[in-house]
Amino acid sequence: MDHKMIAKQFLITGITMAVIAMILSILFRIQLAYPDKTFPLLTTLLGHFAPNGRISTEFYLSLVTIHGTIMVFFVLTAGLSGTFANLLIPLQIGARDMASPFMNMLSYWFFFMASVVMLSSFFVQSGPASGGWTIYPPLSALPKAMPGSGMGMTLWLISMVMFVASSLMGGINYVSTVLNMRTKGMDLWKMPLTIWALFLTAILGILAFPVLVAGVVLLIFDRSFGTSFYLSDIVLNGVQQPYEGGSPILFQHLFWFLGHPEVYIVIMPAMGISSEVMSVNSRKPIFGYHAMVYSLIGITVLSFIVWGHHMFVTGMNPFLGGVFMITTLIIAVPSAVKTFNWLATLWRGNIRFTPAMLFAIGMVSFFISGGLTGIFLGNAALDINLHDTYFVVAHFHLVMGSAAIFGMLAGVYHWFPKMFGKLMDEKLGYLHFWLTFIGAYLVFFPMHFMGLDGVPRRYYAFTEFASMQKWLTINTFITWAAIMAALAQVAFIYNFIVSIFAGKKTTQNPWQSNTLEWTAPVEHLHGNWPGEIPTVYRWPYDYSKPGAEEDYIPQTVPFSQTMSSNLPHDFEDNPAGMDELKKFNDKLKANDSESPKES
Amino acid sequence: MAFKKLINSKTILSFFAAFMLFGTNLLMAQTPAAAAGTGEDANQVDWTGVAYYVLIFFLICLGVAVIGKILKIYDLTLKIQGKKGLKWNNVMGVICLVFLLAGLYGAYWSFTVQGSMTLPEAASIHGVKIDEMFTVTTILTMIVFFITQILLFGFLFKYRHSDKRRAHFLPHNNTIEKVWTIVPAIVLTILVVFGFFTWQKIMDDTDAKGEVASINIDITGHQFAWELRYPGKDGKLGPKSFKLTTASNKLGVDFTKKSSFDDLSADTMYLPVNRSIKLNIQAQDVIHSVYMPHFRVQLNAVPGLPTYFKFTPTITTADMRHKLDDPKFEYLVYCNKICGGGHYNMQKVVRVVSEAEYLEWLSHQKPYLTDGLKKELHFADAEPQKAVSQNRLALNN
């Protein structure tokens, strides 16, 4: 199966899962906004999960759990990486296909099966898993702990094993393709930042996901075979359970060893995509390309040694908490470098506001807002009071929810012509962007203050607490803002579907971009390019180069064709080119001296 | 063409109208709904029908489509007149500027209005340190927040596309890169150093030096309640084991040890002001989390892994009521880790009182060793708690 088709499969499945997760979030937001009211429609739609027109307390937790699971894994991991790694890696590095097309196809079908299994848990009597997307044992290890710990949890675990298998097959393919199949001239420092981001994301996935599988397998043993890896000293419903010697904290270590890199698995492709889109649409080279790559590498390495900040209040050794606090705050340095480089890229640009550009800008804005609140949570002392409150919800929804989704949408708008040979409607794109952007801020900004008031997350109804009554109005406001943002997606879905069939036909390079994918024909071919694969001569960000005729020079244009715009550093690894440049400049000078001077 | 045909199909439109008018009313037929919780809104009709909202949605869509058409016609008219059409880059640039100004005002409004609704001053010694740390972090991060957002949207407006201009070619500048690597590194180092020492101080695992004593209180979480146990006259809490749990001995207290005999159970957590408290935290079934936001206290309750948190309350409930001008105010302990259906309601009142009030309260608490438990353990000769003065010894642990 062609990699471009697999990319489209990942994208459409990802969008479908995103819509489902979004509907789930609206359902539980309605509960939070109107905790004392009844909605008969809910009983019609959800049956015994919403008796008497109200969502049951257990099903509320299921909604929260499956919303989180789908968004983190099925949309922002598979939907984002799966789509753009498949689409862009071969096209941007100049390869005919992935290193192993068959395994690539399998990775999609495993992802699809995992999605089906996850959704099927809605149709079991006890309902889907409801222990939170982090599925901490003992809640997940004791099938009798709550309805959502039963069959729904088993399906969750099976689904995740399939999902990890899919991710590993995809990741191995991405890494081996990038390392082995780059076209002539495409050395590592000529790769677009999208490829760097997707490449490093794949490495993160390959190293982190197996640890989750190990953790999940042990959890299955505890659930089904009477082992005690994560269980000890349990009394459930007054009955002593035969578990001794295990530790629920062990699971948390294993989970977050994946879980924190997962945050970067989600955000790094969005960073790469946004960098690319911002450079193209501000008509400027990305500022500090090398620093951008080094910061991505820095984030990749550091992301493996920060997991403990999710566990500051678990009761682990306080010294360890201090160490994790240091590593966590250090990771803010490469993140800051990236942010400032994006700002410098915009400085004195000639900015075109395509929908893709707007979404890339939105990604940067969210990354700043959410990233800064991460400094609070990374500080162990402050985390004591903020842990598991709405402050956390606000933080991660901005930095890895909204920012990553915006990065993904920027990619969809930017590469839609490459995927479908058509252009999306720009005006609908503008509408989509502003409603979603404003909606997301209205939803998540006030949540910070709820968290600062000590309002815990995952609470079914705040009406039980006198001190939390004051947030009811804001909760209602947040819900309506969420509904507005959700409805804005209708504009996107409509635009996406209609444009596939009735969109304006695209030209080969509609954005005047430098990267290799825009040299491939609009019509999809197996092997991407008819005849020879193009050779690469330069980095991908030669925009608005002084002396150049156009404000962009594609990577396939040799320096010999752009002598008037060549710079000394273009020839750092090509001394022969430097001689050529000298000759060219001498010739120019000679011409100048020969030409009659104007009086 | 096929798509247009579908849209124009009278049949489809007729079906749609019929659905809007009748179908959804059937779906939304109101039945007497048994309201959960308070039981007050049993017959309340909340939605008049989904058709109403679908209709509103379609009306909004229609409005957007009409505005879109008007803009398109305006654009075409300009082109017919030989003028240039709408410059969307300019429109978007201006909207970015408007968003920046509105956003800055919105953030300011949020900080002042919603910010004033957040937790009052910390009611514990270590909480004050946390609040100081929070203030420093907020100031530093907000400076960065406002500067970067202003630059981001300011650049978008200022450098919006123009056919007459070419972007500035600036691929890198090592000096600038060094500056914005080193400056954040220094700021973060300051935060790390302060944070590290604050954290270590809070988490210091021994009783504070020079302090005569601390009060040990057991708090155990289970689905869906907290159990409290106070030490009796010997000032020591008896050991526990989950293997000893029975219907009468809910916490599995080990009565082969003498220190267990005088332990007390309590429904409300009473704390004497300005005394060091050691909360011994445990869970029986799944992970819970002891969360007392007013004291800036939080630690997970994990089965098989006893944890503890030490803190010193500094403001009595009465004083806090006075400060907040709220006569009903109560400190609470929540469960902050998802633990099942009743998770959201695992609250328990915490009352900070003067030492005299604490002693008075303690003297009225029931012994953990109930008659039923005695019978179960065959303690025929065990003596129940009698004297008030004996309980006062709990302060000398």
TrEMBL record, chain A:
Database matches in InterPro entries:
Cyt_c_oxase-like_su1_dom (IPR023616), Cyt_c_oxase-like_su1_sf (IPR036927), Cyt_C_Oxase_1 (IPR000883), Cyt_c_Oxase_su1_BS (IPR023615)
Q: Which SUPFAM superfamilies match?
A: Cytochrome c oxidase subunit I-like
One cellular component (GO) term of this entry: membrane
Membrane-spanning intervals of the chain:
12-32, 59-85, 106-124, 153-175, 195-221, 254-274, 286-307, 319-344, 356-378, 390-416, 428-449, 477-502
Q: Which Pfam family name is an example for this entry?
A: COX1
Primary subcellular site in the record, as a coarse category: membrane
Superkingdom of source: Bacteria
* Keywords carried by this UniProt record: Electron transport, Heme, Iron, Membrane, Metal-binding, Respiratory chain, Transmembrane, Transmembrane helix, Transport
Domain Cytochrome oxidase subunit I profile residues, every copy: 1-537
Record's family?
Belongs to the heme-copper respiratory oxidase family.
Recorded protein name is Cytochrome c oxidase subunit I
Per the UniProt record, the source organism is Mucilaginibacter ginsenosidivorax
UniProtKB/TrEMBL annotation, chain B:
The kind of enzyme this is, by top-level EC class, is translocase
Renumbered to this chain, the signal peptide range is: 1-29
Its predominant location is membrane
Any note on cofactor binding? Binds a copper A center.
What sections of the protein cross the membrane? 51-71, 91-111, 139-159, 179-199
Gene Ontology molecular functions: copper ion binding; cytochrome-c oxidase activity
Q: Which residues form the Cytochrome oxidase subunit II transmembrane region profile domain?
A: 111-206
Its placement in the membrane is given as: Multi-pass membrane protein
User: Which cofactor is essential here?
Assistant: Cu cation
Intracellular or extracellular location(s):
Cell membrane; Membrane
Quote the cellular component terms of the Gene Ontology held in the record: plasma membrane
Q: What is this protein called?
A: Cytochrome c oxidase subunit 2
